[in-house]
Amino acid sequence: MAGEPSLKTRALNYLARREHSRLELEKKLAPHAQTPTELSAVLDALEQRGFLSAQRMVEQVVHVRRNKFGSQRIAYELREKGIAEDLIAAALPALKETELDAAREVWLKKFGALPQDAGEKARQMRFLQSRGFRFDVIFQVLRQSTSNKDESF
């Protein structure tokens, strides 16, 4: 196994590409670790030196996803990556502030036209819901789009 990179080297290679959560790195490195203790020690050392940061992971996910997805979807993704609830809760207020604008942009890009019947309205609502937008935001997007249309007459 002389040619095999060390766990630390593998971890740093992953982190050089993008931020990872501890859970993600643990899953990627586990097949290469001799023991769980060795893996845990490497991850602890990376956290202590600042190479592995849950806070930076949250910031990166929020930055990349905020214009395409709602707060519910982003929070779900962060939970799936093993991010602590307190860090997720800290990120949610800022996400919710911009959620209406993000939902409107996603809606405009995908549809750009008001639903003509109940079936189309339900389809548009399901789409926005699948992107993780809250119902109150979805209703606001469709209501504002309706009022904007009325103003153009």
Topology:
Elements: H1 7-17, H2 22-29, H3 36-48, H4 54-65, H5 71-80, H6 85-110, H7 118-130, H8 135-151
Helix pairs in contact: 4-6, 5-6, 6-8, 7-8
What can you see in these coordinates?
- With 153 residues, the protein is mainly α.
- It contains eight helices and no strands.
- Helix 4 packs parallel to helix 6 and helix 5 crosses helix 6.
- The longest helix has 26 residues.
- The C terminus is likely disordered.
Q: Say which CATH homologous superfamily of the domain at 1-52 is assigned.
A: Winged helix-like DNA-binding domain superfamily/Winged helix DNA-binding domain
Beta-strand level of the residues, as a percent range? under 5%
The helix count comes to: 8
Supply the helix-strand structural class: mainly alpha
Short description:
With 153 residues, the protein is mostly helical. It has eight helices and no strands.
Structure characteristics:
single chain, 153 residues, mainly alpha, Arc Repressor Mutant, subunit A, 72% helix, elongated
